[in-house]
Amino acid sequence: MNLQEIENALTGLRLASASNDAEDFEDKEPMSDDIVRRMMSGYAYVNDLLRDDVDLFTYGNSHHWLELNHLVLCGTTPERREQFRNHIELTEKRFYDDSKGGIGERIEWLQRHRTSTPEAVAAGIFLLITSSPQLYIEGNRRTATLIASYALVRQGLSPVVVTAKDYKEFFEVADTCKNIDRSRWDQTLTIRRETGRIEQFMRNSADPAYLVQTADADSAGH
Question: What kind of architecture, by CATH, is found in domain 3-17+30-214?
Answer without folding.
Answer: Orthogonal Bundle (1.10)
